Structures are given as structure tokens and as C-alpha cells.
Amino acid sequence: MSVELLNFIETVINGLMSGIMYSLVALGFVLIFKASGVFNFAQGVFALFAALTLVGFQTGQVPFSHLINELFGTNFHNWYPSLHSFFAIILTIITMIVLAWLIEKLVLKHLVNQEPIILFMATIGLAFVLEGVGDLMWGSDVKVLDVGIPSGGSEWLEKTTIGWASEGSEYYGMYIDVLNVWATIIAVILVTALALFSQYTKTGRALRAVADDHQAALSVGISLRSIWVLVWAISGFIAMVAGIMWGTESGVQFSLSLIALKALPVLILGGFTSIPGAIIGGLLIGLGEKLAEIYIGGLLDIGAIENWFAYFMALVFLLFRPQGLFGDKIIERV
Amino acid sequence: MIYKETGQFKSTYESDHSIFPLIQDKIAFNLLMLVAFLIVPFFIDSYWEKAILIPFLIYSMAAIGLNILTGYCGQVSLGTGGFMAVGAFATYKIMTFFPDLNIMIIVLLSGVITAFVGILFGLPSLRIKGFYLAVATLASQFFIIWLFNKVPWFYNYSDTGQITVSERTMFGVAVTGANAPPYATYLFCLILVVVLGFAAKNMIRSKIGRSWMAIRDMDIAAEIIGVPPLKTKLSAFAISSFYIGIAGSLYFAVYLGALEVTESFDIMAISFPVLFMIIIGGLGSMLGSFLGAAFIVLLPIFLKNVMVDLIGLSAVTAKHFEITIWGLLMVVFLILEPHGLARLWSIAKEKLRKWPFPY
Predict the structure, then answer these.
(1) Which of A27, A274, B313, B328, by CA, is between 20 and 30 Å from A266?
(2) CA A10-A13-A17 angle, 5° bins
(3) Residue A261 near residue B138 (C-beta atoms within 8 A)
(4) pLDDT at residue B103 tops 80
(5) Phi first, then psi: what are they for A332, rounded to 5°?
(6) Residues whose CB is less than 8 angstroms from the CB of residue A110 and which lie 6 or more positions away in sequence, other chains included
(7) Helices and strands of chain B, counted as H and E runs
(8) What is the least distance, in Å, from the CA of A149 to any CA of chain B?
(9) Closest Cα in chain A, distance from residue B229 (Å)
(10) pLDDT of the residue at A140
(11) What pLDDT is stored for residue A164 in this prediction?
């Protein structure tokens, strides 16, 4: 095979896998939007908060230690040296569930029947709160997150692919981040589990009922509020997974919350209300972005077009299908 | 007692349609204008200018612009930062091309250029709606910021990528640049805000404003009764962008003087705060734009004073607290009064009518 072709294949694979990372974030959006009609801007900050909490539990940081030290002149930071990742993850999941419950109790409950934009703004407020509280609790320095997922290039793949190139050409093998492979596997497991859960359990059925029609669900005795708590908790869990993946790749810091902005084009491409849409949208966006970066960005000699290219792609797509790839058909009546 | 409308009869259509139908409102507004134009310029110092009054006026302008689009025409936009950047860079480029042009004309021209950019990015609104549109406007934000960052022509090939304002005068007094006296910059912004504020108010009260509101309330129904969606939506985008562009132009030329695009027009620095202004002030209310802007300008100053100077927290921790309190206020406000400060004001007026003898 020629080097160009191999490079192309490498770009495609990397693009698809970085797309999976976007899908992980978009998935949380879709779940909440389907079940409660809330466009949850805080999803990215959810991921940041979960990752911060996870690191905090792992390293045994005392919550609010910076604040306490500053106010009272004390000097303590950790109460235990370290905790196994497994327990830290369990504790983080519990935190996210409590968080979901609090959000329902303190925010959503009071905003039922408000206009969508008001709910949207409320989640922006929520994002600010979580960001501030996360920083106050765990400090704002960049943290290293390691839960034992390997990362870096795969040597095995490099060695295998080096032989594929035609004789005499300079080719050093494909570079594929193992972390992305893991992300793909985890995403597949996650989506399968979600699908099974919503298809074959009673709660899952209730979930789908609520997503279909709020009032009909209420009238057959499904408690909307408990479903909301559940959905936000699941989204919190997905945010944690996304936070682990992104945090392992680039460290846990404020910029992690900006992955929400990365997930938005995925959402409008795939449709706000479709789980398969989130996955396929993510794949398309990841692929398009990587290809554009290499083939168009190289052509124009201007870098960093991935900042807006995804949006541009989604926009062009929307001109033909205003509800996204798999979104519910928009029916308008007077 | 004092704030009552009994005895104020309208005998002409003109008086019935005036902006302030009540004599008390008119007096209060005129007093405010007198204070703003004749008293404040003599007492303004550079702290009041740079920290409070100029940002307030500029954000009011941006808020009016976004309120026209989101509050009156119902098209949610998250691209305010991008459009303000267009205004700022248009000002910069016009300044370098035409060194002799009057600053007032430069600012207005920047607004016109931004209006055209707004029409361009408003085109998707004809096809997509709601949150899809909100996300689509984010595309304009990212694209514009990227463009000004990556194409050196826009910042005249300067090494830092910064754009810097040069000194321009009006009636012999510097309005932009480092030597501009506080009263001059203040009056310059104030005149623009007052004139354009009245223009906006009158647009909203006339046919174009009514067609915006018809589109906002239900676009299909509006179309059926003969409101053209294309013209209406694009006019809202154009006029809104005109105001936002002027705000961006002032933000660059009068307020900051020198800026770097990614940092100054970031989505978190401009787009969300301005959206928050119109929501906390009141969607679809002129008064709300001003109240929201005042709230957003004053709150951080207040919080900083309390936390850093009074309690003695370090600046970083105070910043985190500020973010948290921001968010809390936003949520609490939306829960308690989703219609914003403007609604609170009208409730207060309602109460004032009968005060102090409610029966």
C-alpha cells in the first residue's frame, strides 16, 4: 500500500476514535434533553466536576482545604495518602447521584413549565456554580488523573503496520492512542448497557415513556421527578466516564469543561433527541474534523480550523435536515 | 399618592402613543437625563469612568442589540462576542485606512459592517429554530474569533496580534486613546446610547417591531397573516448586529484601547454575560437591557470589595467564590423572577400607584 493511503487510513481511524470521545459527552446531553426537555449546558462542567472529585478522592484531599487554610491559617491538605481507583470511582458515582438529587430538588422542581430558554440559562448558572464549587473544593491547579487506563501510542500497531507500506518507502507505522481504543470500548459497553436498561427493565420503560410524552407518562402514574433524578444521575455517570477519558488525556483542569462546546455540533448533527444520533454524529464530526485539519487546513496553510469546522459541518447539514440526522421530525401547527 | 395616573387625560393620539404616557415618568426620565448630561461629566473621575459608567453604557448597547434579536424577535443568539469583535476590528481597519475620518462616523460605519455580517450569519435562522439556531450562532462566534486570530491582515500584521487604537478627537477633545479625558469618553458613549436607545424604542413601537414580536410569538401564524419571515428575521439580525457592532466598536476604541481577540471576545467574556443581562433585566424590555447591564457591571465590583477587602480572601479564592455566587444568583433569579428586573420594576410601579393608601 502507498504511504498516502496508509496515512489516510490512520487519519480516519483517529478521527473516528476522537469522535467517540465527543459522543461520550453528547450522550449525557441527549439523555437529559429527551427526558426533561432541558438543554443542559452544564454537562461539560459535570465532567470537570466528576473528574476533580475523582482525583480528590484518589489522593485523599480534604474538601475546601484551600479555603479553610486561608480563613483560619491552618495547614492541612490530605487525610489519607491514597485510595484505590475503584473505591474512588464508587465514591464519585455516589457524589454524582447526590448532585443529581440536589439539582432536581433545588433547581428543576422550581422551574417546571418555564420556557426552554429560561431552563437553558438556569443550567448555565448551574455550570457556574459547579465550576466555582469544584474549584473551591479541590483547588484550581492542573491535576493528573490516572485510573489505570493505559495511554500513549501502541507499539504493537506501529510494528505491524510498518510492514504494510510498499517496499522502500519511508513509513514509520500508524500512531493510534491506546486511550482512544479504550474510550471506544467503554463507549460501546455504555451504550449497550443503556440500550438494554431502557429496553428490558421497568424503570427503563418508564424512562422511555417520559421521553415520549410527559403528560401521558404522568397520567399512567410514572413519577416525573424520580425519573428526572435518575436521568440526571445517569448523565452524571456518563459525565464521569467522559471526565476520566478526557482528564487522562489532558489533565484535569478548567478547560475540561469546554468539551461541552465540542459536543454541541455533535448534538445538532445527530439530533437533540437521539442516542444513536449522538454516537453517529460524534463519529462524523470526529472524522470530518481530522480530515479537514489535515487536508483542508494543510491546503490553506492556516491551522486550528477544528475550532469551528465541526460547527460549520453541522450547520451545512442542518440546512438540509433542520432536525438533525435522527432527531424527531419537527411538525409545526398554528 | 404621588405616582398616580388619575386626572391625566389624553386628547390626541400623539400623547396617547408617547413613550412615557405618565407625566411622572416623563419628569423622572428628564431629570435622569439632566443628571447624566449636565452633572455627571463635571464629577466623573477615571475610576468611575473605566470601572462603572463606560462598561455600563457599552453593555447596555450590546444588551439592547441582543434584546432586539432574542427578546423581541425570539431568535436565541450566543454569538454576541463574535459580532462585537466584528465591530471592534471594523473600527480598527477603518481607522487605519482613513486617518482623517471623524470617530463618530467610524463607529457608525463599524455598526453598518457588523449589520451585514449579522445578515450573513442570520441566514440559517430561516431554516432552523430554537436551540439548533442557538448552537448555530455559536458557529459564527468561533469562526469570527478564529478569523481575526489567524488572518494577519485584520490586525495589520502586528507581532502580538493585538489591535491598538489611535487618538481621535471630536470638537478638539480626544475621545479615544490614552489621553482622552473621562468626561469626553463618557459623553461620547452616552450620546450614542441615548440616541440609539430612542431609535430602538421607536422601532419596537412601530411596524417593524410588531412584526418581530409576531415572529417571536408564533412564526407560522405570523407568516399566514402576512408578516414576511425572511425580511423580518434578517432585519432583526441586521439591526441587532448594528447595535452589537457599535458596542464592540466602543468596547475597543473607547474602553479598552488595545485588545487581543481571543481573550476579549471570548464566549465566556461577552456572549454569556450579555445573554444573562437581558434575561436578568427582562427579555423584551428596553428598561431591562439597562437594568441588566447595570446589575452585571456592579455585581463583580461589589463582590470583590466585600470578599477581598472586607473578609480578606486571596484573589484566586475570591474569584472562585465570585463564579459560584454568579451561578447561584442566576439560578435563584430565574426561579424567583423569570421575567427579570423589568418585571420587578413594573410590580413596584403597580404598588406605588396606591401607596400609601391602598384602599
Answers:
(1) B328
(2) 140
(3) yes
(4) yes
(5) -115, 135
(6) B335
(7) 17, 4
(8) 31
(9) 15
(10) 72
(11) 66
CA atoms in the 13 A half-sphere facing the CB of A176: 26
CB A245 within 8 A of CB A186: yes
Of the given ranges (A6-20, A141-155, B126-140, B286-300), which has the lowest mean pLDDT?
A141-155
Note the Cα B30 to chain centre separation in Å: 21
C-alpha cell recorded at residue A95: 457524589
Cα→Cα distances A310→A16, A259, B270, Å: 13, 13, 22
pLDDT digits (tens, 9 = 90+) for B161-216: 788 887 777 787 787 777 778 888 888 899 999 999 999 999 999 999 999 999 98
Residue B214: the pLDDT is 92
The angle subtended at Cα B138 by Cα B134 and Cα B144, nearest 5°, is 145
Rg (chain A; Cα; Å): 22
Q: Tell me the C-alpha distance between B261 and B160, whole Å.
A: 11
- C-alpha span between B56 and A155 (Å, rounded): 58
Q: How many CA atoms lie within 13 A of A128 on its CB side?
A: 23
- Between strands B258-259 and B169-170, the pairing is unpaired
Confidence label for A298 from pLDDT (cuts 50, 70 and 90): low
Does the pLDDT of residue B244 top 90, yes or no? yes
HSE-up (13 A, CA, CB side) for residue A276? 5
- ipTM for the predicted complex: 0.79
Which residue among B131, B321, B326 places its CB closest to the CB of A136?
A: B321
Q: What is the mean pLDDT of chain A?
A: 80
Torsion angle of the four alpha carbons B103, B108, B110, B115, in this order, in degrees rounded to the nearest 10: 180
Identity of the highest mean pLDDT range in A10-14, A327-331, B60-64, B285-289: B60-64
For the cut 90, the answer to whether the pLDDT of residue A252 exceeds it is no
Chain A / chain B CB contacts < 8 angstroms: 144
Q: Are B132 and A324 inside 8 Å of each other by CB?
A: yes
The C-alpha cell at A251 is 489533565
User: How far is it, in rounded angstroms, from Cα A30 to Cα A276?
Assistant: 10
Task: Provide the shortest C-alpha distance from residue B90 to chain A (in Å).
Answer: 21
Q: At which residue does the C-alpha cell 500508524 appear? A: A174
Report the C-alpha gap between A164 and A151 in whole angstroms: 24
Which run of H or of E encompasses B169?
A: strand B169-170
Phi, psi of A92, rounded to the nearest 5 degrees: -65, -40
CB A136 within 8 A of CB A66: yes
Mutate to test the interface with B, among A69, A121, A312 (most CBs of B within 10 A): A121
Report which listed range, A72-76, A228-232, A297-301, B309-313, is most confident: A228-232
Question: Got the DSSP string for B212-243?
Answer: HHHHHH-HHHHHHTT--HHHHHHHHHHHHHHH
CB neighbour burial string for B172-197, b if at least 16 within 10 angstroms, e if fewer: eebbbbeebebbbbbbbbbebbeebb
Q: For residue A198, which of A275, A139, A128, A290 has the smallest C-alpha distance?
A: A275
Grid coordinates representing A46 are 459535570
What is the C-alpha separation between B112 and B135, in angstroms, rounded?
25
The verdict on a CB contact (< 8 Å) between A308 and B146 is yes
Crossing angle (nearest 10°) for helices B80-97 and B103-122: 140
For residues B322 and B304, the answer to whether their CB atoms sit within 8 Å is yes
